[in-house]
Amino acid sequence: MALSDYQRDMEGCSRCSSCKWVPFNQIKSWRFAKNCPSICRYNFHAYSGSGRMIIGLSMLTGRSELNDHVAEIVYRCQLCGACDTACKVYRDDIDLTEVLLELRAHCVEQGFLMVEHMAAIDALKREDNVLGEPKAKRGEWAEGLPLKDINRERCEVLFHAGCRYSYDPDLRDTVRGAARLLLEAGLEVGIAGAEESCCGGRAYELGFRGEAENYAEDLLSRVKASGARILVTPCADGYAHFRYLYPRMGKEIPCEVLHITQLLERLILEGRLRFREEVPFLLTYHDPCHLGRMGEPFLGEWKGDKLQRPMSMKRAGRKGIYEAPRNLIRALPGAELVEMERIREYAWCCGAGGGVYEAFPDFASWTARERIEEALATGAEGLATACPWCVRVLRDAAQEMGAELPVYDLVDLVLQAAGIAEKERV
Amino acid sequence: MTTATLETWKEISEAAYRDLENAVGAENVSREPAVLDGYAWQPTINDDPAKWVKRPVAVVLPSSTEEVQEVVRACNRHGLKFKAFSTGWGVYSGPTYDNVVQIDLRRMNRILEIDEKNMYALVEPYVCGAQLQAEAMKRGLNCHIIGAGPACSPLASATSGWGVGWDGVYMSYGHRNLLGAEWVLPDGEVIRVGSCDSGLGWFSPDGPGPSLRGLMRGSTGALSGLGVFTKCALKLYPWPGPSRVNVRGLLLDAKAEIPENVRFHLCFFPDRKRLADAVYRVGEAELGYLATRTAVAAFIYTFAPHLLRRIAGTRCLRDVLSRGVKWGFVIMLVGASEEEIAYQDAALRRILADHDGLSIEAMGVPAIGSMVFMNFFRVTAIPMVFRMGGLFSTALDRNDTWDTQLDWAEIGESIKRKWIERGGILDDLADNPFMALYESNMWAHCEEIFQYDARDPKHLASLEPMFIEFSVAAIEKCMEPLSATDARLRKIVSPLMGHYNEWQKKVSAMVDTNRAADTGMYCDEVDFDFSKVEPELKAKLDRLVERFRWTEDGPPS
After folding, report:
1. Residues A370, A260 within the same domain
2. N or C: which end of chain A has fewer CB within 10 A?
3. Is B4 within the bounds of a domain?
């Protein structure tokens, strides 16, 4: 696909600005009524979903040209999908996120790149992860755990840790704990260790599509070789790309794909995982974009006039993962869930996505602080989420703000309730 | 003012740009063409097939009244024009001239005060209807939300443009709720008109002499042609329901918790007369929190456009919708107590019985009730109007008596039917008026909505000829056409209406000696390009204009 393939979508923009707001039925206050970090931070219409579509149309019709400033506008966006979801409440014929992705691919084709993104892509090519950490150390997080090495043996469940979990020292206990929970439930779990690679999704979002396809091929071959019946990942980014991007590229994963919260929920329901300890907190839950609205599976490509596209093929986030993490919180002994105003399909982004964390850390932090404010407004004693990127940026923001709001990876809370965290420390 | 191309667009001078930067800060002004085009793409309610309006020379984002003043003064110093908009919805938001600085009021977004006791809110331009309603509901109050939907600024519709909405039966029309306004004149001076409550805010009584409030707002509003409104006080109304309505889901599967004190009736009558009479009776009984006549086909194309396409191709179903349930009326009742809602319900049922009407009580049908409640209460159905074809437009947009508006709807329907048959617009079964009632149905509003796809050349080619056909019908039937904002039509019809825009120009000259405000939507005129209009229609228009033209002696006999 190319930018020009989406000209009808862009021409279809009525400039109604619905893309800037939480779907109107869900607006509960003045304070938390807006959905798009980019337009809220930078204010010119060009920073909204609609504005970026108009930029695309303006360039395609020869009214304006791509330059460094315009490319930066394109990149100052987390690709969180909130604009797309809001638009699709009211429209059938516009795929806003696809336009945003095409704009990025167009920028790359034309040579308008962000230095920080190039560094991430160079790191990816060199070390197979966007953090630039040594590939050889990718599997170190699993040292001492009785996990199978899928490079040598077959397994029931293939555990894909993802880039950030593999290398972020703050999240080391979390990812180890996730694997321990699966082992505790009696599953036969395998990992690729140092041979695990990035899912490639971040490369795709940055506009480097060739790289993304290569990584998809790599993962597919590993899944096939492992003989796994389940591919599970604690990384929400990876989950979204396995469920949406890979099938869209024609690379269907030949087994069930689950996020860790889904598998843990299943294990609890089956009685294979039991809770022993109290988690006596009032918790609120942040929906990661890539687990929620962007985690909706690929629904198929509609080839005809999008005005005639059936609702069932409209990517509006309805089939994202919202209940599994909430059910986990509800199942925690002593825990209580209190919701923020912007949740589920219309959740506010954490700020880390779309290459913003790498290129515009101040913007990522600003976005995360806004989310911390919203969490604080609920009166919650803790903020739980289910994505390593969200955990990272939200924790940092809470610390910067001096907010008394611990940010938990949901896996850590499950570990605590299962009494495994203590064992790990011992 | 010329047509919307880039041929005459020029970059802003360095000196002027520096002045704008000084006014609002460098990060809040842009002259990047791609950014400016975000303000030049204005397809909604735009009958110009180009859809691009004039590209501004710069856009500024002021955060205060003082910054707006500085921007306006800079425009005066450098021979530039300015055009302000708040939430921005429709072609009226964009520039109509070259050398215009677009003032995007997005950063002025606060609800400054909600006074429960005196039932008013003091708001800035970028507060949207949904935000104000959400906050008002927490205090047992509600605000008027206009028909363009909850994304729109209540300040904009009260001070600067129209203000029609389904809740008009209870909460009236935009400017009728305007208690006071802070107004930056086109030379940068600030004046405050009206009242922000006695003793709590400003109080600037009108008179003696002409009313400033009347001059600044008039019937339609000046759409930034007379300056910039930076704050306003708006009347709020009682809301005896919950402080928040919980809605789960976003699309057709959305489920709302409907308050117990709300009833929603879809009423149908055998013919037009009985519908008209019943609605007058409803007004006399002072019933209704919101009310409208909306055709069943309009419901379907909003919520299920795919279904309407199928129905349109099935003759028997078309007939059922076009004739069997043609004379419909929607009304929402809200009671402050069980007794009151029971009384209202009984009174409505009595009126229905007296006029051979029947009602579907939507709240008794959970799927329908859940779907319609918020879509009417918060007007969230309106953005879905874009679903059928991507764009829509409207004709014959005026306020008059209920009977007259029913005439209007029928005339509009007949014109639309022709254009649907020609493939010039989408088939929505033709009968699709947007109607609202005001102040116990003493007056009403009607717009004839038509759906089209701007990506279809045949539809684009139909826009201007249709526009003229609607206008000819309006003149012929002595009704008021949609002339308020279109400078092309203004030139044709103003001579038939007392040369009203000449008076507007005098008002403009009085407050805007440097002609700094963009008055294209307010009082200016341009020639209509009749090349796409059939010669017979043009000849008919010429005859009508000649017949109804005002002379120096006054109106024609």
Report:
1. no
2. C
3. no
Interface membership of B242 toward A (CB under 8 Å): no
Could you give the CA distance from residue B529 to residue B519 in angstroms, rounded to a whole number? Answer: 20
Q: B461 and B417 share a domain?
A: yes
- Residue ranges of alpha helices (H) inside B285-357 are 296-303, 305-312, 315-319, 338-354
CATH code of residue A360: 3.40.50
Residue A157 burial (CB count, 10 A): 25
Interval B514-556: pLDDT, tens: 999 999 999 999 999 999 999 999 999 999 999 999 988 888 8
Nearest to B131 among A30, A54, A316 (CB): A30
Residue A119 lies in a domain: no
- Do B228 and B285 belong to one domain? no
Maximum distance among all alpha carbons in chain B? Answer: 72
In a domain, B350, yes or no: yes
In a domain, B56, yes or no: yes
**Does position A408 have pLDDT exceeding 60, yes or no?**
yes
pLDDT in tens, A238-268: 999 999 999 999 999 999 999 999 999 999 9
> What pTM was computed for the model?
0.96
Q: Is the peptide bond before B49 cis (omega within 30 degrees of 0)?
A: no
State the ipTM, two decimals: 0.96
Return the HEC string of B90-146: CHHHCCCCCCEEEEEHHHCCCEEEEECCCCEEEECCCCCHHHHHHHHHCCCEECCCC
The number of beta carbons lying within 10 Å of the beta carbon of residue B555 is 11
**Which residues, 6+ apart, have CB-to-CB distance to A124 below 8 Å?**
A130, A198, A202, A203, A211
Cα B40 to Cα A100: distance, rounded to the nearest angstrom: 20
Rounded Cα gap, residues B556 and B289, in angstroms: 42
Structure confidence by residue, pLDDT tens digits, B495-507? 998 999 999 999 9
Contact A357, A365 (CB under 8 A): no
Average pLDDT (A21-47) is 97
Give the residue from B46, B257, B386, B425 with the most A CB atoms within 10 Å of its CB, the best one to mutate: B386
